[in-house]
Amino acid sequence: MHWAIGILLFVASVVAMEGFAYVMHRWVMHGPGWFLHASHHRARLGRWELNDFYAVIFAVPSIVLLLGGMQLGWWSGCTPIGAGIAAYGAIYFGFHDVIVHRRVATRYLPRSSYMKRIVQAHRLHHAVESRLDTVSFGFLWAPRPDALKAELARRGRAGVRAPAGNDRAT
After folding, report:
1. CA of 156: how far to CAs of 83, 150, 153, in Å?
2. Is the pLDDT of residue 104 over 60?
3. How far from the centroid of its chain's Cα atoms is residue 104's Cα?
4. Alpha-carbon distance values, 119 to 2, 78, 85, 116 (Å)
5. Could you give the count of Cα atoms lying within 13 Å of 83 in the half-sphere of its Cβ?
6. According to the 3-state scheme, what is the secondary structure of the chain?
7. pLDDT for 98 beyond 60
8. Which of the listed residues 15, 26, 118, 132 has the most CB atoms within 10 Å of its CB?
9. Torsion of the alpha carbons at 153, 157, 161 and 163, rounded to the nearest 10
């Protein structure tokens, strides 16, 4: 395979993963997979939460594609696709777990309008206590926060938690 096709497959995989993550977050994690994801919408009592199993689940296709493409003689496109899935996972970890939820200590403060937008959109997602009635399911792309606030207001703020001192939901 030509190297340019490999790069194209890698980039396309990273981009496609945002769509996949949106679908999984909205209709699986906030649907039948809520039994794992609910832990992410509550205060974490230790270093880990049940929701962390999703990282393992979503890593499996990447590992299988990398193994198949590099060691088992599968189609050579499996390698850049598996690498793209892994890259999306790393980007997600950096954004979601490090920057938004601060599960790893860092001094980073979002300064760009893009970073402020996606952090605020994710915090508005967590403002809703239940699996229903929430907004903003993407991770690297999100609607403008004012649009999300308007949607929550339109819904009569259904499920929005009281502004108590629960900083975990941010």
Report:
1. 43, 10, 5
2. yes
3. 16
4. 38, 32, 22, 5
5. 13
6. CCHHHHHHHHHHHHHHHHHHHHHHHHHHHCCCCHHHHHHHHCCCCCCCCHHHHHHHHHHHHHHHHHHHHHCCCCCCCHHHHHHHHHHHHHHHHHHHHHHHCCCCCCCCCCCCHHHHHHHHHHHHHHCECCCCCCCCCCCCCCCCHHHHHHHHHHCCCCCECCCCCCHHHC
7. yes
8. 118
9. 40
Q: The pTM is what?
A: 0.85
Q: Are 36 and 53 contacting, i.e. CB atoms less than 8 angstroms apart? A: yes
Bin 136: left if φ > 0, else alpha if -120 < ψ < 50, else beta.
Answer: left
- Amino acid 16 reads A
- Look-up of token digits 């939460």: 49
Q: Exposed, middle or buried: residue 21 (CB in 10 Å: 0-12, 13-18, 19+)?
A: buried
Q: What is the mean pLDDT of the chain?
A: 88
CB–CB of 48/54 below 8 Å? no
- Given phi > 0 = left and psi -120 to 50 = alpha, else beta, which region is 43? beta
Q: Per this entry, what is the length of the chain?
A: 170
